[in-house]
């Protein structure tokens, strides 16, 4: 949906505008065609916020997912979306478009939300987005991410975990906020590896089905590993599939070949 966001969160380096360029009507088809040729088993689709559009771009997002599934039904799709200004039909449209994992990021705790995120992005609003996904499709895996180091307290993070589980969110990731430029908000603190391990333990104790926690972890960090979790295996079982490991061979720059281990679904 373009490279220009209608919002201006203080942690984000994406360029912003009140009037971004129009959507590319060919994007859903072109995106689906490209993905179908990649030979991958799991992708993450994301976008900027488009508050200038009547549905926030939900129909465009949903069409891209549907076309991708039509061309490559074996590919598992995770969608990382904005809040669509809490327009319920828009949230439900994306949730029911054929995707497998619905992600929407809380970003931070409730008290820090007004200082970290755009004024149009609200803590309770984001919780409701995640709740509405389950209303639209109860079996959907829901996912969110929390940045640490922006002035939050441990008690507030714990409360956020409780709020997420109260809304049946399945997956959570924790990462360190890194300041993109001097124009963006400063880092309040750097979280130690031991503390990241603590948050992973807390995620488990709170009942999340999958979690990732570390300084460089982001919402889409090794997202396909979700399929090895309880939540992932549940999804695959419903699709009549299972997860395994497979050797992957490719070619890099200068014709150099590489070999590694990937996941097969």
Automatic annotation (TrEMBL):
Keyword DNA-binding among UniProt keywords: no
EC assignment: 2.8.1.8
Pfam families the UniProt entry points to: Radical_SAM
GO biological process: protein lipoylation
Binding annotation for [4Fe-4S] cluster 1: 220
GO cellular component: mitochondrion
Stated name of the protein: Lipoyl synthase, mitochondrial
Protein species of origin: Leucosporidium creatinivorum
């Amino acid at each position: 949906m373009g490279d220009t966001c209608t919002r201006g969160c203080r942690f984000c380096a994406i360029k912003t505008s009140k009037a971004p360029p129009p959507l590319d009507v060919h994007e859903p088809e072109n995106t689906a065609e490209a993905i179908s040729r990649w030979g991958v088993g799991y992708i993450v689709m994301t976008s900027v916020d488009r508050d200038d559009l009547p549905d926030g771009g939900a129909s465009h997002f949903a069409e891209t997912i549907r076309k991708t599934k039509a061309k490559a039904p074996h590919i598992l799709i995770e969608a990382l979306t904005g809040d669509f200004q809490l327009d319920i039909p828009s949230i439900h449209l994306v949730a029911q478009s054929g995707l497998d994992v619905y992600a929407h990021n809380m970003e931070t705790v409730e008290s820090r939300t007004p200082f970290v995120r755009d004024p149009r992005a609200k803590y309770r609003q984001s919780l409701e987005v995640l709740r509405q996904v389950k209303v639209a499709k109860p079996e959907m895996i829901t996912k969110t991410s929390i940045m640490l180091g922006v002035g939050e307290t441990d008690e507030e993070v714990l409360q956020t975990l409780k709020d997420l589980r109260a809304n049946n969110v399945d997956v959570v990731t924790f990462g360190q906020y890194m300041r993109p430029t001097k124009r963006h908000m400063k880092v309040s603190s750097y979280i130690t590896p031991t503390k990241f391990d603590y948050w992973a333990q807390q995620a488990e104790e709170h009942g999340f089905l999958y979690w990732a926690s570390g300084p460089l972890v982001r919402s889409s960090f090794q997202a396909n590993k979700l399929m090895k979790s309880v939540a992932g295996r549940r999804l695959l079982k419903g699709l009549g599939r299972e997860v395994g490991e497979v050797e992957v061979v490719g070619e890099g720059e200068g014709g150099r070949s590489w070999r590694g281990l990937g996941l097969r679904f």
